[in-house]
Amino acid sequence: MLRPMRFREEAVRWLEEDPDPDTREELATLLDLGDESGLADRFGERLQFGTAGIRGTLGAGPNRMNRALIRRVTSGLADRLNAVAEGAAARGVVVGRDARHKSDVFADDTAKVLAGSGLAVHRFPDPVPTPLVAFAVRALGAAAGVQVTASHNPPGDNGYKVYGPGGAQILPPFDAEVAAAIDALDSLGDVPLAPDDDALLWTVDPAVVDEYLEAALALVHRPDARDLSIVYTPLHGVAGDLCVELLERAGFNEVRAVPEQADPDPDFPTVAFPNPEMPGALDLALALAGETDADLVLANDPDGDRVAAAVPAPAGGWRPLTGDEVGCLLADHLLAEGDGGAERVVATTVVSSQMLARIAEAHGVGYAETLTGFKWLARAAADAEADGRRMVLAYEQALGVMVGTAVRDKDGLSAALVIAEMAAHYKTQGRTLLDALDDLARRFGVHATAGASVRLEGPEGRALVQAALDRLRTRPPRQVAGIDVVAVADHAAGVSRATDGAITELRTPATDLVAVTLADGTRLQLRPSGTEPLLKFYAEVVEPVGDGDVVAARERAAARLAAVSGAFEALALGVA
User: Fold this and answer.
1) Which of 151, 352, 353, 414 is catalytic?
2) Which secondary structure element, helix H or strand E, spans residue 116, and what is its range?
């Protein structure tokens, strides 16, 4: 009985400080009903502040996203900025938000806590895409940025994303220092709140938006190639108006936005899940594209930091491109069309396709491979600049693309523009993006990739996630789908162990990722999601084209991929 009583006591204390009538009512109801499981779910754990910030389901208590938690998190951020960021008070913090439920009040609380702590605040007055906040941090010389967003999560979620002074997501140890400052806060009553008319609450100048658009427009290389019909959807998110304006400023005059999804709607009523990677998310866009005989479909996720693309398939219908296909197409196009030489660099993550390394080698440019997450890709861009080099493109397989470095994070709007120009350029040659993919396959082999996610909710789910990772670390398989294992890389331990006994130290920071390499070059990887209760699987096989028959090579690669992916998942989950 002690544990349930502790939850009740914590709930009562939380209720006394909670500034939101909605979550106060939620807690009061749980207490009145004696709903111990509901209280345990909200107070048995707490959302963790990580490198990208914090994200979770809306509701009361420390294990939910709510105004009390936002104030605590912001107080911890303000504490660390005032302690370690030079001139933070005057430089201030950029605060933006998407259009999700509670985003407006979360952003308002964020701004008032920051100003109450003596930090100037640059507020966007309306919902904005996440890349615009990242850009504004650098444009305004701010000490940090906060975007209230849950990106492509379900409608019942929200989140809080933090950028450092360079406009990139914060890195260790600053994230841990903020988390410690949050834990050290005793009472919300100790958090000062600025009034609505506080002199430190400023509005971002609209000129910043124009600066962003100009920076994106500077990425184009072939302004003469504009004969392209585009269907676009922001998936009920906040990127729609700005992305369409960017495309039209660049000269793409045939842009049709999906009317049912053009305006922000926090309920995302036309999609089961507001993620352009998910089956069905692009159905309305593809239908409109078919009706209008479009050349290209483009989509952003609800906060605009990811981009998806689809093109007409030769046999009819539409062919969505994977994140790896988009990233490799863009890299080859930009390296062929852009200015510069060997000082250029491209980058991707360890769970993305190995083709990018081969493209970089063919163009004689640098290549970097990082851990998952754009915080690491942005760091690779900064490291390149420090060495006198220039990041041309960085991408991750989950539809995240950073073209150039004006935005030090994934930016689905500028990426959409460059994809459109690339497609228009190939159209002038009587070719398509699928033709370009076939060319890459002939040059480097078919790189077939697949990803799968297993959602594991609650304490049991977390135990299953850990068990799967431990199983691969402590009892690695000798074979997968009949193919010998030649090495197992444990990124948490920082070593790769080959089956011949050789041990290689990994150069990436420690993270919860296990990678298995097979004798035929297949790469299989497993990690937990950093933002959702998911176990994420990745697989890649490379199939030589041989006699030039790309279709046959793709069929062979697909068969191999299906076999090793299924076998790997079964081994990791202990059902093989």
Assistant:
1) 151
2) helix 103-116
Give me the pLDDT at residue 458, please: 67
Tokens for 362? 């063919």
DSSP state of 50: B
Q: Which helix (H) or strand (E) holds 194?
A: none
Per DSSP, helices labelled H in 429-535 are: 433-444, 458-474
Within 10 A of 139 (CB to CB), how many other CB atoms are there?
21
Active-site residue flag, 453? no
Calpha distance 129→523 (Å, rounded): 34
Residue 105: alpha-carbon gap to chain centroid: 24
Residue positions counted in the chain:
576
Flag whether pLDDT at 317 surpasses 50: yes
Structure tokens at 358: 């081969």
Residue 206 has pLDDT above 90, yes or no: yes
Predicted confidence band of residue 2 (pLDDT cuts 50, 70, 90) = very low
> Long-range pairs for 45-51 at CB < 8 Å and ≥24 separation?
48/179, 49/73, 49/76, 49/175, 49/178, 49/179, 49/182, 50/175, 50/530, 51/169, 51/170, 51/171, 51/172, 51/175, 51/373, 51/375, 51/530
User: Is residue 316 helix, strand or coil?
Assistant: coil
Element (H, E) at 291: helix 283-292
Query: Are the beta carbons of 194 and 201 closer than 8 angstroms?
Result: yes
Instruction: Express each pLDDT in 361-379 by its tens digit.
Output: 999 999 999 998 899 999 9
pTM attached to this predicted model = 0.95
Extract the runs of DSSP E, i.e. beta strands, from 417-548.
Answer: 446-455, 479-480, 483-490, 495-498, 503-505, 514-518, 523-528, 534-543
CA-wise closest residue to 47 among 23, 24, 25, 73:
73
Residue 296 main-chain phi, psi, to 5 deg: -155, 140
Task: Calculate the dihedral angle through the C-alpha atoms of 496, 497, 503, 507, rounding to the nearest 10 degrees.
Answer: 0
Q: How confident is the model at residue 4 (pLDDT cuts 50, 70, 90)?
A: low
Domains in the chain (CATH in brackets) are 1-43 (no CATH), 45-205 (3.40.120.10), 211-319 (3.40.120.10), 323-444 (3.40.120.10), 446-573 (3.30.310.50)
